[in-house]
Inverse folding.
C-alpha cells in the first residue's frame, strides 16, 4: 500500500509536470516563430513595416495587413458591443425567465456555427447584398468582413456579459430598488458598474475572436495588400494578417515563408498589446466604479 | 476498487504497446530496399495530372512508388534546388535566377494550359466579348478603370487576380509583361476567382481554361477564342507549358514515370483532367 504522503507527492509532481509541459509547448511555439521569422527581419528590417508589397520586386511590407486586422477588429466591436450589451441587459435583467430560457441557448448556438459557414454567407449573400445596396465595385469589402465578424463576436459578448450581470448579488439590486430607483437606474448605476470587469473581459474575448478569425475573413476581405483609401473607407478591399498568411502559405517558399512568420509574430503582438490595454482599462474602470482609489 | 485498477492497467499497457509498435512499424517497408521511391512536388495546377498518373503508374509498377504533393510552382523548383524531391512540377517557366542555382536543370513539358480572361455575365451580355492584349494590360495595371473605355457599360471595373505566390499569377504577369497590378481582389484558387467574378456584375479575372463557363464567360483575346485548337496552333497567346523539372537528365525510376506521362495513356490522363496534351 502506498502511503498517503507519497500519494500526495505523486499527485503534486504529476500536475507540476503537466503544467510545465504546457508552458514548454507555448515557449517552443514562440521560439519557433522567432527563429522562422528572423531571416525576414534580418533581410528586410523596417521594410517589413512599410506598405509596399510586391513579390516580384522583393518588397514585403505587411503594414496593410496589420492595419486591416486592427481596422476590422475595431469595426467588429463597434457592431457587436452595442448589440451584445443590449441583448445581455435584456436577457439578464428584463426578460422573464421563460423567454430567457429560449433566447440564451439560441444566441449561444450562434457561437457553434463553423466559421466557414459565416464566410460563405458573407461571400455569397452579404457581399452581394452590400454590393447591390451601396453600388460598390465588387462583392468583397471591409464592411462585409466587419459585419460578419461582428456577428461572430456577438454570442461571446452576450453570453459572457449576461453571466457577469447575473452574478451581481440580488441584494445590491434590491437595495437600489428599495431606495426608489427605477429599474433602468438600477441597471445603469448598480448592475453594470458591478459587472464591469466581466463585461470588459467579454469585449476582449469578442475582439480576440474577430482578430484571429481567418476563414470567414479570407472569403470576403479581398486579400489585396493595399491600404484602404481614405483610411476609414469600409467599402474598399484590403487584407488582414490572418488572411495574408492563409492565402500566401500554400504556394510560398524561401523568404516569403519567413515574412509570413513575421506576420504571425505581428498578429500575436497586436493581440498581446490589446489585451494589456484592456487589462489596464479593466483595472481603471473597476477602480472608478467600485470606488477603490 | 481493485477491478478499476486492473482495467486501468490494461488500458495503459494497450496504449503502451500501440505506441511502441507505431515507432517500430514506421521504420520498416514492405520488401526492404527493393522499392524505389520517386517524389514529385510543386504546382497545384499540375497536381491532378501527377496524382492521376502516379496512381495508375504505381498500380502497374509494384517496385516503384511515386508519391506526389503540392505546394506551388516556386516550391517545386526550390525542391529541385535543395534536392528534397526528384521532380519539381511547375505551371510557369523556370526563372533565370533559379537556373543559376540548378545549372543542370532539365525541362520536360507534360501538358499545356490555356489561361482564359473571364468577365461577369452581365458585362458580357452588355457587349464586352472581345478585348485586346493591350486593354487587358491596361485594366490590370489600372490605366483603364471603366468598362465604357473598352466598349462596355459605364461601370467601374472590378479586377480580380490570383495570389502573387501562385504560378498562375506568375505566368499571367509574364505573359502580360507587367509587374504590378491594381487589382481589387486577390483570390486563393482558380475556383475562388471564378466565384468572385461570378458574384459581381462588372468584374474581370483570369483562370485556367477548364474553369470557363456558367456565369463567368470568357472573352476573346485579340479576336481569338481560347479553344484547344487555337492554343495548339499558337493563335491564342495566353498559354503556358506545364513542366516537370529534374536536376539533370531523368534516369531510372524517374525516367520511367516521365515516359509514362508522355505515353499515349499518360497524355489521355492529361486531357481527362482538363489540360491540353503535348503529343
Amino acid at each position: 500500500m502506498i502511503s498517503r504522503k507519497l500519494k500526495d507527492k505523486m499527485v503534486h509532481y504529476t500536475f507540476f509536470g503537466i503544467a510545465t509541459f504546457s508552458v514548454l509547448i507555448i515557449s517552443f511555439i514562440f521560439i519557433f516563430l522567432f527563429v522562422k521569422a528572423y531571416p525576414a527581419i534580418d533581410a528586410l528590417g523596417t521594410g517589413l513595416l512599410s506598405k509596399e508589397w510586391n513579390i516580384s520586386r522583393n518588397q514585403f511590407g505587411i503594414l496593410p495587413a496589420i492595419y486591416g486586422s486592427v481596422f476590422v477588429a475595431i469595426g467588429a466591436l463597434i457592431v457587436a458591443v452595442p448589440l451584445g450589451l443590449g441583448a445581455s441587459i435584456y436577457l439578464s435583467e428584463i426578460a422573464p425567465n421563460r423567454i430567457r430560457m429560449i433566447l440564451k441557448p439560441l444566441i449561444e448556438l450562434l457561437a457553434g456555427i463553423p466559421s466557414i459557414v459565416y464566410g460563405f454567407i458573407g461571400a455569397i449573400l452579404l457581399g452581394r447584398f452590400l454590393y447591390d445596396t451601396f453600388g460598390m465595385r465588387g462583392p468583397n469589402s471591409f464592411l462585409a468582413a466587419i459585419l460578419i465578424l461582428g456577428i461572430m463576436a456577438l454570442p461571446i459578448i452576450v453570453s459572457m456579459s449576461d453571466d457577469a450581470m447575473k452574478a451581481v448579488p440580488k441584494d445590491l439590486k434590491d437595495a437600489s430598488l428599495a431606495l426608489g430607483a427605477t429599474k433602468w437606474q438600477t441597471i445603469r448605476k448598480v448592475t453594470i458598474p458591478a459587472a464591469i470587469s466581466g463585461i470588459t473581459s467579454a469585449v476582449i474575448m469578442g475582439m480576440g475572436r474577430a482578430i484571429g478569425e481567418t476563414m470567414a475573413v479570407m472569403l470576403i476581405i479581398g486579400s489585396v495588400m493595399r491600404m484602404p483609401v481614405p483610411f476609414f473607407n469600409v467599402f474598399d478591399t484590403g487584407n488582414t494578417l490572418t488572411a495574408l498568411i492563409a492565402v500566401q502559405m500554400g504556394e510560398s517558399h524561401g523568404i516569403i515563408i519567413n515574412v509570413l512568420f513575421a506576420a504571425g509574430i505581428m498578429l500575436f503582438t497586436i493581440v498581446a498589446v490589446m489585451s494589456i490595454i484592456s487589462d489596464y482599462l479593466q483595472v481603471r474602470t473597476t477602480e472608478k466604479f467600485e470606488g477603490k482609489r | 476498487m481493485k477491478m478499476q485498477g486492473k482495467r486501468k492497467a490494461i488500458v495503459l499497457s494497450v496504449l503502451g504497446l500501440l505506441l511502441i509498435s507505431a515507432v517500430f512499424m514506421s521504420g520498416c517497408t514492405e520488401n526492404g530496399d527493393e522499392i524505389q521511391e520517386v517524389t514529385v512536388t510543386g504546382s497545384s495546377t499540375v497536381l491532378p495530372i501527377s496524382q492521376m498518373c502516379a496512381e495508375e503508374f504505381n498500380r502497374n509498377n509494384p517496385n516503384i512508388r511515386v508519391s506526389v504533393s503540392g505546394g506551388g510552382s516556386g516550391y517545386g523548383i526550390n525542391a529541385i534546388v535543395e534536392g528534397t524531391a526528384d521532380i519539381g512540377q511547375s505551371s510557369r517557366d523556370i526563372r533565370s535566377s533559379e537556373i543559376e542555382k540548378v545549372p543542370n536543370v532539365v525541362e520536360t513539358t507534360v501538358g499545356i494550359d490555356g489561361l482564359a480572361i473571364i468577365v461577369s455575365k452581365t458585362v458580357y451580355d452588355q457587349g464586352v466579348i472581345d478585348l485586346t492584349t493591350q486593354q487587358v494590360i491596361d485594366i490590370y495595371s489600372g490605366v483603364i478603370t471603366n468598362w465604357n473605355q473598352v466598349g462596355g457599360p459605364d461601370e467601374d471595373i472590378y479586377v480580380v487576380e490570383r495570389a502573387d505566390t501562385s504560378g498562375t499569377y506568375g505566368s499571367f504577369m509574364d505573359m502580360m509583361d507587367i509587374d504590378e497590378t491594381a487589382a481589387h481582389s486577390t483570390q486563393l484558387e482558380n475556383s475562388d476567382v471564378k466565384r468572385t467574378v461570378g458574384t459581381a456584375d462588372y468584374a474581370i479575372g483570369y483562370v485556367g481554361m477548364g474553369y470557363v463557363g456558367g456565369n463567368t464567360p470568357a472573352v476573346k483575346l485579340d479576336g481569338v477564342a481560347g479553344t484547344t485548337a487555337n492554343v495548339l496552333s499558337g493563335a491564342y497567346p495566353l498559354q503556358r507549358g506545364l513542366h516537370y523539372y529534374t536536376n539533370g537528365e531523368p534516369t531510372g525510376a524517374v525516367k520511367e514515370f516521365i515516359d509514362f506521362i508522355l505515353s499515349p495513356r499518360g497524355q489521355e490522363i492529361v486531357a481527362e483532367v482538363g489540360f491540353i496534351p503535348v503529343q
Observations:
- Strands of chain A lie at 53-54, 59-60.
- Chain A has a mean pLDDT of 88.
